[in-house]
Structures are given as C-alpha cells and as structure tokens.
Amino acid sequence: MEQNDESTDDRPTVRIPKYRRGDEVVAWSEVDAEWWEHVQHARVVQEKVVETYLHEPGVKYIERERGEETIGGHATETINILVADDETRARLDLPDEIEGIRITVEIGTISDTE
C-alpha cells in the first residue's frame, strides 16, 4: 500500500463513533473513508491470523499496530506476531503481507512490567 499524497480535503469521509455512553454515541469523528475501510479489513485479517497461528507452539501474541505508511493522513495498520525464536519464525514461514495487510514478525518474550 502506497502513501497517499492526495489532499485530505478532496477525499471521501465517513462518520464513526468517537465516544459512547452505554449504547449511546455521544461524539462522532469524521475520518478518511479509505483509511477506515483499511482499519476494518485489518481487524478481519487479524482475526484470521489469530485463528491460524496463535495456538502454534512458539507464538507468544498477535496484535495490530501502527504501520509506517499512511492513507488520507492516517497511519495504516500492520499485524505484529511475537514468536519465541528463529526456529518458530522459520517453521511458520509467514508472508510479508496477508490480504494487503503488512505482517511483521518479532522474536522475543513477554514480560510483566511493574
């Protein structure tokens, strides 16, 4: 996905809930429509990645995080997978992206912070 340099004033937008009180939306945000579609798609892809890989030995966690590229002035999302070691990374043989969403793999451990 390339960085989009088109002026954000010229791009379609959508209204999304910003704050809720119970079931009631008390404030709305207007965001770039293409970016919002990307965020929704990244959530679906993350669910698929979790279903496929989270229970594999050596996979510690899977999360969405901010990517380096932008759409309509907003950061794209990537899926980050933390694995225990190089062996796990090699065994999983993960692609660089799934359905257009960038995948990053880190080697490490989870530790509690106080």
General shape: elongated
Main sheet properties: 4 strands, mixed
H/E element order: EEHEEHEE
Beta-strand percentage range: 35-45%
* SS elements, strand count: 6
Distance linking N and C termini: 38 Å
**What does the radius of gyration come to?**
17 Å
Q: Trace the largest sheet across and list its strands.
A: 3-4-6-5
Instruction: State the secondary-structure class.
Output: alpha+beta
Annotation field: number of helices: 2
Low-confidence stretches: none
Mean pLDDT: 91
In which range does the helix fraction lie? 10-25%
What's this model, at a glance?
With 114 residues, the protein is α+β, with helices and mostly antiparallel strands. It has helices at 33-53, 86-92, and strands at 13-21, 24-32, 59-71, 74-83, 97-98, 101-107.
Plain-language structure description:
The protein is of the alpha+beta class. It has a domain at 32-107. The chain has helices at 33-53, 86-92, and strands at 13-21, 24-32, 59-71, 74-83, 97-98, 101-107. The strands form 2 sheets. The protein has a 4-stranded mixed β-sheet with strand order 3-4-6-5. A two-stranded antiparallel ribbon has the order 1-2. The longest helix has 21 residues, at 33-53. 12% of the residues are buried.
